[in-house]
UniProtKB/TrEMBL annotation:
Gene: mntP
Organism of origin: Paenibacillus chibensis
UniProt main location, coarse: membrane
Short name of one Pfam family: Mntp
TM helices/strands, residue ranges: 6-30, 42-62, 74-95, 107-130, 136-156, 168-185
Protein name: Putative manganese efflux pump MntP
Lineage: Bacteria, Bacillati, Bacillota, Bacilli, Bacillales
Keywords for this protein: Cell membrane, Ion transport, Manganese, Membrane, Transmembrane, Transmembrane helix, Transport
UniProt subcellular location: Cell membrane
Role description: Probably functions as a manganese efflux pump.
Annotated coiled-coil segments of the chain: none
UniProt topology in membrane: Multi-pass membrane protein
Family (UniProt): Belongs to the MntP (TC 9.B.29) family.
């Protein structure tokens, strides 16, 4: 019974983190969607984001497991601190004014760069989760599905609403990561 509740707690934690990380793809997707985007590009970008949201935390988890073997008892503090820094960075970036993106999201290179840029923070979270020995398959699938799904929602929503909504999505994701970082430390 105790193992089942621990597994459920881990599942809920991973899903919340995956959603928080996907908020970056959601918020930036709104901006791209507002520029006008074809449904085919929505699909391509979302699949690439889902792929990178699987690859980056996977690499991060392996790195975190290695670091855990090196750091020992300091692991909780390092992982929590990393999440706090990443969350604070997301909140800070969400309020930067007047930043323009020069990447053409319709080209293959533009789609790859955009997908990688919104997925890079998944690496850091993967490092933290690797230190805690989280379930590998569950983690990467949750990150990939949430990243891809939230990017679809952001891109499609961007076709219909104003640009200001996207900034708050990234800030919310950052606050959630900071809260988990504090919880890992204490």
């Amino acid at each position: 019974m105790l193992e089942t509740s621990a597994g459920l707690g881990q599942l809920i934690t991973i899903l919340i983190m995956a959603t928080a990380l996907g908020m970056d793809a959601f918020s930036l997707g709104i901006g791209i969607g507002m520029k006008g985007i074809r449904l085919l590009h929505v699909l391509r970008i979302s699949v690439l984001i889902g792929f990178f949201h699987i690859l980056m935390p996977l690499l991060g988890i392996f790195t975190g497991q290695y670091m855990s073997s090196l750091l020992g008892q300091v692991t909780n503090y390092a992982a929590g601190g990393l999440l706090i820094l990443l969350g604070a960075h997301m909140v800070f970036n969400s309020f930067k004014a007047g930043e323009t993106r020069m990447i053409d999201h319709r080209s293959l290179l533009g789609m790859l760069l955009f997908s990688l840029s919104v997925s890079i923070d998944s690496f850091s979270v993967g490092v933290s989760l690797g230190m805690f020995r989280s379930d590998l398959l569950l983690t990467v699938l949750a990150f990939g599905i949430c990243g891809g799904a939230l990017s679809v929602m952001g891109l499609l929503l961007g076709r219909r609403v104003s640009r200001n909504l996207g900034e708050f999505g990234e800030a919310l994701g950052g606050v959630i990561l900071m809260a988990f970082g504090i919880a890992f430390i204490f």
